[in-house]
Amino acid sequence: MKISVIGTGYVGLVSGACFAQMGNTVTCVDIDEQKIASLKEGHLPIYEPGLEEMVLHNYKAKTLHFTTHAKEAIASSKICFIAVGTPMGEDGSADLQYVLSVAKTIGESMQEYLVIVDKSTVPVGTADKVRQTIQEALDARAVTIEFDIVSNPEFLKEGAAIADFMRPDRVVIGADNQKALDIMHDLYAPFMKTRDRFISMDIKVQR
Amino acid sequence: MTKYTANAMLATKISFMNEIANICERVGADVNQVRNGIGSDSRIGYSFIYPGCGYGGSCFPKDVQALAKTAKDFGYTPKILDAVEAVNYAQKNVMGTKVIDYFGEDLKGKTFAIWGLAFKPETDDMREASSITIINTLTKLGAKIVAYDPKAIKEAQKHYLKDNASVSYAHSKYEALKNADAVILVTEWQEFRSPDFDEMKKLLKNPIFFDGRNQFNKERMKEIGFEYFQIGV
Ligand SMILES: NC(=O)c1ccc[n+]([C@@H]2O[C@H](COP(=O)([O-])OP(=O)(O)OC[C@H]3O[C@@H](n4cnc5c(N)ncnc54)[C@H](O)[C@@H]3O)[C@@H](O)[C@H]2O)c1
Questions:
Q1: Contact B123 A93 (CB under 8 A)
Q2: Which CATH class, in words, describes the domain spanning B2-91?
Q3: CATH architecture of the domain formed by A2-168
Q4: CA-to-CA distance for B84 and B107, rounded, in angstroms?
Q5: B122 touching A, CB under 8 A?
Q6: For the whole model, what pTM was predicted?
Q7: The CATH fold of domain B94-229
Q8: Are the CB atoms for B227 and B204 separated by under 8 Å?
Q9: What's the count of helices (H) and strands (E) in chain B, helices before strands?
């Protein structure tokens, strides 16, 4: 499957590398030009056991790409992960500005049906905001393209991120639609060979 | 909601155990024994009940607070979540306080070796790390710090401690100890688990060990000749 990952931080880079390792073609996107440039030269921004080998291997094999051009990456993927930071805002709440700015870019870039996966840690109700932001951008382009929003929180532990990602205790998917759920199940099935650890739940919709 | 709940639960276990450690310390109990005693109960289990100098990282601190904020936005004032955060905030200072209790408020002319900067082993991530709190507390009182971490020194130099001129860095755990008045273990990297204690005693000015992660047996440390301080004992 062709996947784009927006935000190549801890979670974005580890997810991207692991999906590529499982045979997908992944493009990791970041706005930080320096980060992308050094990744292309084989320098990793973080230390994580096993990550460097995996990134270098897949980058050479052309199953893992790095770019600052979100548009092309999104336009050519079937699944788009949002993995940007959700830092603490001044009042303690999660600051969603990065997530929503990516949502806007997605709406401006997508060309066909897309599953948008929120991997960043976000409060209940965020899926609605992401959906709305994407829809507004589509409306501004005056196009109709179908899309689904899925919540897929990441449970990896720093220091054991690769092991956690490759053999997760569970994969939690929040979705309100079977089609998107099936696509997510296909994506994660290879990570759950011994036992199905797929836990699906609904996402909160505005009442 | 699931992700926030998972992280909040884990943070709660840590803060709960740190609170128990603080009680143990005052009543004269040993939290290490208490931990063993309760962990064997399968309903409780051993994971995430290790006392220490507080949790850090990019997830627990912000996620606990974000969940608390969401609760408040929806009209519920969380009691446990706020306490988890408050206990952790205070816990990051516990080791610094022990050092001050021992050496006094004036730390001019004192040098402390710090073992471990990352918020936990096997990462170079220093976001919200306890090491930052401890180091800044001690340097404010005039102390010099020589820090060693297998991976996180670059991060410290680039961001988290770049404005603290009283901190220098060593290339090895032993180099950090040279002429230090005491060593403070903050991150439980494996390479700190079986150090050469004789070598340590030779390098340190005084054989004083502040262990923020309860890595060693206190009786054994006494035999070897260390003044040994840990959390919750
Ligand atoms: N680090 C962890 O252990 C961990 C574990 C589970 C979940 N999470 C969650 O995952 C999310 C990401 O965390 P992280 O630690 O990977 O963050 P990070 O800060 O390491 O990475 C975020 C990246 O996103 C990039 N970015 C920001 N805006 C962008 C944009 N508009 N387009 C493209 N790239 C953009 C930044 O340049 C940065 O490289 C957070 O919500 C966090 O709570 C983190």
A1: no
A2: alpha beta
A3: 3-Layer(aba) Sandwich (3.40)
A4: 31
A5: yes
A6: 0.85
A7: Rossmann fold (3.40.50)
A8: no
A9: 9, 6
